[in-house]
Every structure is written in structure tokens, then in C-alpha cells.
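Quick check before the chapter quiz. The format below is the same one you will see on the exam, so make sure you can read both the input and the output lines.
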Amino acid sequence: MAKQDRVCVGAIAGAFGVNGEVRLKSFCADPEAIIDYAPLYSEDGGKVFSVKLTRPVTGGLGARLGGVATKEQADALKGVTLWADREKLPSLPDDEFYHADLIGLPVLDVGGVALGTVRAVHNHGAGDFLEVFGPGRRQPLLIPFTREAVPTVDLTAGRIIADLPEEI
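Here is the expected output.
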């Protein structure tokens, strides 16, 4: 299955305890919903994991992954991102998007001038921001992902239109 057919839903933050449990960071709106999308895959698809949540832990969820039985195996997976098949994910309303669908899209201003390409979507607690990087830019442009600043996301045409505030 191609990578675009999968969406990143979490990451392994390291071992938890000594019996092969991992600390799992879920990127789902409901963190525990990550188990609904199992089996989960490593980014390259080379590893497949069944998932059983064990308990809430500081900074995530305790989990048992299929094939992981020791602390050393769990430690070796630290930093591995977990990907789910896209067809297992729920459909979204028209005004909501999976970050994976936004990354890589070109961003144009309302006059049609290219601003760059979405490299990442960040949320530091005050809402989502698109990180846009383009030729001639030394620093990425951070655009608030609001209806006012980003009036159009056209996945069919493969582009985003941004109406930048004067101060950006």
C-alpha cells in the first residue's frame, strides 16, 4: 500500500516499564480511538503492530504492541511513527482536513502569487498553523489555519488560497 494511502495517527515515545509496554502518543482527536485503526504500520510499512491500550500514562497512553515483549524491544521503537490505513479513518466534514492531505499542497495568495508549499501543520495550543516554505524564503511562513486567513482549501485542484494579514 502506498504511503499516501496511510495517515500518521501516533508515535512511540519509548518504553514504559520493564515488560515490553510502550508509551504511545496518539495524534487522534480522541486519543484512545487510535486502537480503532489497528493494525498500525511503521512509516515504511515494514513493521505491523496490533495495539492494546493498558492505561493512561504521563504524556500519552500505555500500550502493548504485537511482537514487542521486552523493554529493549520497546526502547528500540522510540520515535517510530504509527500509520493507519486511510479507509479506516472516519470521513470528515467539508471544512475539516487531515494534516496529511494538506502537506505538500502549493499555497497561493488571493492574487494567484505562489507563496510556497505546506511543509507541516503545527498546533501549539492556540489553533493550527500552516508552515509554508518556498523558494527565496530563509524562514518558513506560518499562516494561521483559520477561515479568514485560509479561505480556500481545494483538495481536488490540489491548492490552498491564503489571504495574508498585512503584518505577515
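If your answer matched, good. The chain has two helices and 13 strands.
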